[in-house]
Amino acid sequence: MANLKSTETKTKAQSMGMHTEVLTGRTQQKFFNPDEAENFYYFGTYDVDFNKRTELDVKDMTATEVNKHIDNLMSKGYGTIVIKNPQGKHSLGVGILNKLNLIFEGSLGYFGMGSCDGPTVRINGRVGWSCAENLMAGKVVIEKNAGSCFGAAMRGGDLICKGSVGARTGIDMKGGTIIVGGDAGAFTGFMMQRGRIIILGNVGINLGDSMYDGTIFIGGKIGSLGSDAVEAELTSSDQDWLKRKLKVAEIGENFNVSKMVKIVAGKKLWNYDNLEPAEKKGAI
Amino acid sequence: MCGIAGLIHRGRSSNVGKELQGMLQALKHRGEDSSGFALYGDTDGRNFIMRFKVGENVGEGSSSVMEETSVYDERVKLVNANILSMGAKIIKEERILPYSLRYEVSYNENDLREFSRKIESVPGVEILSMGKSLEVIKDLGNAKAVCDRYNLDKLVGTHGIGHARMATESGVDIKSAHPFWGYPFSDVSVVHNGQLTNYWNNRRALENQGMRFMSECDSELIAVYIAQKMREGATLEEGMRDSLKGLDGVFTYFVATKDSLGMAKDTMAAKPLVLYESDDLVAMGSEEIAIRSVLPQEIETYDPYDGEVKVWQI
Question: What is the pLDDT of residues A205-239, one digit of tens each?
């Protein structure tokens, strides 16, 4: 939890009584300096061994119990955890701020793997709405389909769905990469601000609607473009990046990336310049 | 936020009452102000089954009032007299709760509008459903509570739809609970998750065409809208496709008839739906956990896209 401290700088808004404090906590300081490797992980994270493996049958557990069990296992040094019988439960695997190899043998409900920073996750099933929302770093791979709002507001890491995804994929995303092997629904990339979305199949209507920034690559047909989204030139460096990314993602390795369509924002709507913390981490 | 669920067995019957209870109970976190079932049971198809209420169960924000059982008794007498005056005959009479009844009625006409008007001319009386197979049961509380109160565990049939309601636009009472009967069509029912923004315009237009509304719940509009389209000659699927243009707002809804089950999703795809489809069973719900209550094993599911309409036959 970041410390909240008052600053001595008085702004006009403060003098008008609109503010009483300004965030000067951990995430606002130069905390994610790439030269300081020890600062890449949160305080209190566990030193885990990927070769130390265990299985957990969660059939009769609540989501809270499952997440506490995962945390407890990490505290004991387990670096590879296999979750059996998730059975579509919501909010599994959320808030993991740790290196971890996590495998779900089944499907997740809503908000699976939300607000994570660091784990490598494989879900041998399907996921519901808002999978990996606010993902900061790490890699999440879904073997089947995913629901709507896939990767909503994510800031970093790789989110991969080998099947098809619902509507509003990457809504409000601020970094990282979403890769979809199948189709995607309407409003893909809605209000995205940074990051990249790769869809190998078709997409629905209003692609990239109100996007501020970021890049969308589409391999199939586009239902329609949304406001402010325009087609851009697919460069050779784009193609190189796509090939590399698809190979790393173990998806569409032989896909003809030269035929993909590149979509970007047609207007400069953004007013920010500083890298997100997760992007600084990725810059190493 | 509400939860909806539906399932259809193709080529066989099952204990749909218990199955749908499990699906809705899994969704109770989406709302448990009221719960409702539209179940299509196995019948000989000779008589109409009429589920109706002669009073209300009243919760928060309801404009209705609780009344004495003696008031209900008087209404039942008037309903019985009206049934006879329509040339119909009561074959079986069950009083499930003081305010809730189930009749089997022999009636030879197919147009149920006049019949329904006559029954509902008794103040405080509402027909919840009428059909050769359909039975709509709805009341306050979560799915298990309603199921227990109405003994739905044993109901065997081919398909059904259900609703777990979090009341937002209207009060907590039976008249605002789902499912809604597609008045005046036999065996048509609707459940809905979402919000309709052109409710009043559509309602006024439909009322001018002779359709009736019993609540101020926007979801009732879908049932009446589809019923009106069918009255004009459209098939169920045509009516549903038309609704994507005629209804504004965000919605996912299910419609069921005697031999079919359909789903429609608005063009924004703003409301959730997870679908499982196989040769002998289709199950769908607002969340996958609803489907997992009847199919706990690993299954292939997906989210239908924006503007999708699907209809399955038994």
Answer: 999 999 988 899 999 999 999 998 999 999 999 99
| Continuous segment of H or E residues that includes residue B90 | strand B89-97
Structure token pair of residue A273: 């310049």
Domain B3-313 indexed as CATH 3.60.20.10: yes
Name the closest residue on chain A to residue B307, using Cα atoms.
Answer: A186
pLDDT at B255 over 70: yes
Q: Quote the pLDDT of residue A206.
A: 95
Distance from CA of A221 to the nearest CA of B (A): 15
What are the extents of the domains in chain B? Answer: 3-313
Selecting from A109, A165, A186 the residue whose C-beta is nearest the C-beta of B268 gives A186
**Catalytic residue positions of B?**
2
State phi, psi for B244 to the nearest 5 degrees: -65, -30
- Fill in the DSSP letter of residue B294: T
Q: Say whether A128 sits in a helix, a strand or coil.
A: coil
Contacts of A150 in chain B (CB under 8 A): none
Residue to mutate among A84, A107, A108, A142, with most B CBs inside 10 A, is A107
Residue B291 has pLDDT above 80, yes or no: yes
Of A225, A214, A203, A222, nearest to A265 by C-alpha is A214
Tens digit of pLDDT for each residue in A44-90? 689 999 999 999 999 999 999 999 999 999 999 999 999 999 999 99
Mean of pLDDT over chain A: 84
Q: Are B270 and A167 within 8 A, CB to CB? A: yes
Angstrom CA distances, B47 to A4, B15, B36, B70, B171, stand at 71, 22, 23, 29, 34
The verdict on pTM exceeding 0.90 is no
Using a CB–CB cutoff of 8 Å, tell me whether B297 touches chain A: no
Max CA-CA distance within chain A?
60
Backbone angles phi, psi at B246, to 5 degrees: -80, -25
pLDDT per position as a tens digit, B99-144: 999 999 999 887 898 999 999 999 999 999 999 999 999 999 999 9
- Report yes or no: A164 at the B interface, CB cutoff 8 Å: yes
- A109, closest residue in chain B (CA to CA): B288
Q: What is the ipTM of this complex?
A: 0.79
Q: Which two tokens stand for residue B233?
A: 């000659």
B22: chain A residues, CB-CB within 8 Å: none
A166 contact B CB<8A: yes
Task: Give the residue extent of every domain in chain A.
Answer: 145-282
Which helix or strand (DSSP H or E) is residue A229 part of?
A: strand A229-232
Taking the C-alpha atoms of residue B44 and residue B269, their distance in angstroms, rounded to an integer, is 40
Q: How far apart are CA A181 and CA A185, in angstroms?
A: 13
